[in-house]
From TrEMBL:
<dbReference type="GO" id="GO:0006388">
    <property type="term" value="P:tRNA splicing, via endonucleolytic cleavage and ligation"/>
</dbReference>
<keyword id="KW-0539">Nucleus</keyword>
<dbReference type="Pfam" id="PF16573">
    <property type="entry name" value="CLP1_N"/>
</dbReference>
<comment type="subunit">
    <text>Component of a pre-mRNA cleavage factor complex. Interacts directly with PCF11.</text>
</comment>
<feature type="domain" description="Clp1 C-terminal">
    <location>
        <begin position="321"/>
        <end position="434"/>
    </location>
</feature>
<dbReference type="InterPro" id="IPR045116">
    <property type="entry name" value="Clp1/Grc3"/>
</dbReference>
<keyword id="KW-0547">Nucleotide-binding</keyword>
<dbReference type="InterPro" id="IPR038238">
    <property type="entry name" value="Clp1_C_sf"/>
</dbReference>
<dbReference type="InterPro" id="IPR032319">
    <property type="entry name" value="CLP1_P"/>
</dbReference>
<comment type="function">
    <text>Required for endonucleolytic cleavage during polyadenylation-dependent pre-mRNA 3'-end formation.</text>
</comment>
<feature type="binding site">
    <location>
        <position position="16"/>
    </location>
    <ligand>
        <name>ATP</name>
    </ligand>
</feature>
<dbReference type="InterPro" id="IPR010655">
    <property type="entry name" value="Clp1_C"/>
</dbReference>
<keyword id="KW-0507">mRNA processing</keyword>
<dbReference type="InterPro" id="IPR028606">
    <property type="entry name" value="Clp1"/>
</dbReference>
<dbReference type="GO" id="GO:0051731">
    <property type="term" value="F:polynucleotide 5'-hydroxyl-kinase activity"/>
</dbReference>
<dbReference type="Pfam" id="PF16575">
    <property type="entry name" value="CLP1_P"/>
</dbReference>
<keyword id="KW-0067">ATP-binding</keyword>
Amino acid sequence: MTQSEPKEWLLDEENELRIEVEFDVKVKLRLVTGTAEVFGTELGQNVDYEFSGRKIAVFTWHGCKILVWGTCSVEYIANETPMTSYINMHLALEQRRVLATQNNGQGPRVMIVGPNDVGKTSLSKMLLSYALRQNRQPTYVDLDCSEGSITMPGCLTATPLTEMIDVEEGFGSSATSAPTAGSAVMPLAYYYGFPSPKDNVKLYTLLLNRLAHSVNRRLEEDEAARKSGIIIDTNGLIDATGYEIIANCIKAFSVLGHERLYSDMTRLHQKKAGAAPGAPGVAVIKLAKSGGVVERDNAFRRHTQNQKIREYFYGTSKSELAPYSTNIGYHEVEILRVGEGTLAPSSALPIGEDRKVSETQVVKVEPGEHLLHSVLAVSNADRMVESEILETNLAGFVYISEIHESRKKMILLSPCPGKIPKKYWWLGSLKWAED
Ligand SMILES: Nc1ncnc2c1ncn2[C@@H]1O[C@H](COP(=O)(O)OP(=O)(O)OP(=O)(O)O)[C@@H](O)[C@H]1O
């Protein structure tokens, strides 16, 4: 797996070691002296960390020595990083948290926007980790439906974090049916089912508003979480649709109370006061992109998605899981999908009379061979009321591993044993061939 002789790296203060590891390669890393962190999470001294299919930066504020076993496809030390501006950003947020504590107010709500591959998720992790290191309980909202940092790709999620984010696994191989890495609480997930918000803007907006409503309600009840604030990671859409979504998100999460934020944000990139009496000030802060952020091509992204799905059912090398295989009859479940963009199989039967399917219309899908290798999201809904079911959160996911058309049965993998307690399952565009 790894070569026997490690490579030694000596990092001066405020340097970072940037490494890229292919998917079929394992690289081991150990901090020997000094202090270092990966996207905000501190490394333990003389602890071995293993990475595969990752692009990471090991940053040190005060200098350190690191040993690396294995072959990285890219490895170099950078002495220019935007980390000082990131920590300053954190300190400014921390001040807002202190103020919120003093005034019994609410902590900062930060939304990170920008094009693809500029380091939005990495910055989110850092701001969350720094907050966690100060014993805060920030809420992480992930609106990047292509990636699925918390659960599976295709979801909009929120999770209150209470524990440090794992160095090796990031937000982890977490499921909606289990607490995530970094959290003692189950994440809240809504199923969107497409890789880009553009694929079904109406549905995306509906779910975004629903998620924001649930988060806002939760924060009303949880004082520590409310004062710690929210970090919102967005997807990289910055065209007209993207701006519309950003503007909606700002409103939904009350990032600020200013309707013209969108134009202000793009035009000014600076602090603006709210227009409405008593509206909070608007702070639009431009942060530099790290030179280490790596562009990921479609193949890499697809591979990351597959890894994510695999981890949901089988866990990681650190915490392996054994999924349960269940036999289920076609008649025992109702498979649904949403909207025009997904209209496809002729077997799809529209519920309602209209043949033309709107973007948020729920469509019943007849089970059949076409479901093979699909990942389906299990809704928590107990009844099929169109306006309700769309906005019902998820219980978890199942994977269809075999279809027996003649017996009208399918075999599925699920993380929990026995019959799946919920019968409404969403079909999106996620497919996965088990390897
Ligand atoms: N300083 C760094 N050194 C090395 N790799 C980095 C660094 N910062 C980020 N990366 C890596 O670069 C890739 C892109 O970063 P990230 O996911 O944070 O970008 P993003 O803006 O969220 O992308 P997208 O919107 O497309 O999901 C990731 O694989 C991340 O681990």
